[in-house]
Amino acid sequence: MAKVNPITLKESEKVEFKESFNDSALKTLAAFANTKGGSLYVGVKDDVTIVSKGIADEVQQDVVNKTIQVLGITPEVSLHQYKGRDFLEVKVKQQRPPVSVRGKYYHRVGNTTREITGDDLKQLFLEGESWDAITNDRFSFEDIDFDQVQDFAKSAQNEDRISPDIDIDDPKVILDRLGLLVDGQLTNGAILLFGHDPQKYFPNAVVRIGRFRDEATIVADRTVSGNLFKQVQESEEQIKSLISRRYEISDDSFKRRDIWQYPLSAIREALLNSLVHRSYFEMNVKIQIKVFDDMLWIYNPGKLPGSLQVKDLKKPHSSHPRNRLIANTFYRAGLIEEWGSGIERMTATLKENGLPEPGFEEQGQGFVAKLYGRDSSEINSADLESLNSRQKTAIEYAKEHGSIDNSTYQELTDISRQTATRDLSDLTDKGIFKQKGQGAGTHYILIEQRYF
Fold first, then answer.
1. Tens of pLDDT along 363-379?
2. Other CB atoms closer than 10 Å to residue 369's CB: what's the count?
3. 3-state secondary structure (DSSP) of residue 445
4. Are residues 319 and 352 in the same domain?
5. Residue 1: inside a domain, yes or no?
6. CA gap 52, 439 in Å, rounded
7. Of 206-210, 241-245, 280-284, 363-367, which range is least confident?
8. CATH of the domain at 22
9. Long-range contacts of 177-184, Cβ-Cβ distance < 8 Å, separation of 24 or more
10. Domain range holding 214?
C-alpha cells in the first residue's frame, strides 16, 4: 500500500479533496483531464480530516467504473492510510480530445473547477491539433511570398537540413515537404511563415515592443508585423535600438567591440522561443516585450504546453513544440537547434557574460520570461563622459523635437559646419543617433532611449 501523508497536501491546480465520490468529484476529474492532469483524494475533508475508517474493494471498483462510464477514461486508483483511516487517490492524466461530464466541459483554474463555455470551449477542442497545421479555404497562393520560400530553402540547404535535390524553384514542393500544404490547401503556418501580409488573417500575430521608464511610464512603443522570419529580424533590431551598449577598443588591434546590455544571442533565443511557442489560438493577445533599465520582460500568450512545468525549464527536458510545423521550419532554416535546448543555451550565454539566470513564470493565461542585464547607467557612463557639452545639447534638442539636423545644430551651438558634422558623426558612431535621409534632407534621430 502506497504511503501518502495528507497533511503535506494542499489543494491546487492538480490536487483536490472530496469527502465522497459523486458528480462533483467527476467534474473535478474531468477538469484535471482537460488541464494538466491531477489527483483527487476521496475521503478527505477540506481541512484534511480523514472521514473513513475503511474503504472496501467494491468502493474502489465503483470509482473506476463510474469514471470510465461518465468520462470515458480509466483512472489510476490507490488506497492510502493515515492514522488508521483510509482514503483514496484517484489520479488521471491530461487527455486529448477533452472529456465531458454529461455534455459539459470543465477545467482547473488555480484550485477551482470551472465550466468551459463559448470560445474557450472551441479552443479546448482545437488545442489537440497543432494550430499551424489547420487549413483554411480563404488562403490562396497569392498570399505567399515565393521569394521568401526560396530564401528559406537556400538557407536550409546551406544548413544541410533539407535535401539538396529538392527543387527550390517550385515553392509549392517546398511547402508540401514542410507539411504546410495539405491536399492542395495552405495551412495557418504557411501564411504566418511565408505570407506577404499574415496580419490580413491574423491581426494580433505581431510583436509589441515598448521602452519603459517604470511600470507606468512608456517612452517608446513599436509594433513589429510581417511574416515570422521578418518578425525575428525586425524585433531584434528594435530591441537593440532600445537597450544600451558601450565600446571597448583592444590595445593590440585597435578594433572596436560592442558590449551590449544583454548578449544578442540571448535576446534572439528569447525571441525565437516566443514566436515558435506562443499559443496562436489566443488571437486576441500579442507577444509583448517591455524594455526596462535593467530587465527585458517578454510575455507570450499561452501557458507551458502539456505537463511541462516552470521548474523543468532550466534543466534538460523533452521538447513540447506547441506549433510543430513552425518549429520544424525554423529548425531547418538554422534559426533554432535541437528542440528543447533554447533555454539552456540562453541561460549559459547569460552566465558566460556575468549576468543572472533568466526568470520564468506563468502569468494569467500566458508565460513570462525575464532577462536581467547590466544596469544601463553603468554601461552608458563612459559614453556620456566622452560627450562634449555641445553634443549633450543636441541630445536634449532631439529628445524634445524628435530629431536634429546639421544646420539646427550649428545655430544652437554657434559652431562651423565641419565641427557640427564631426560631432554628429561621433554621436552616430556611438549608437546614440541614427542618420536618416540624404543630402539636404539629412537629419539625426535619437535611438538610445536610455537618455530619455
1. 887 899 999 987 655 54
2. 21
3. strand
4. yes
5. no
6. 88
7. 280-284
8. 3.30.950.30
9. 178/325, 178/328, 178/329, 178/332, 179/133, 179/325, 179/328, 180/132, 180/325, 180/329, 182/133, 182/135, 183/135
10. 129-380
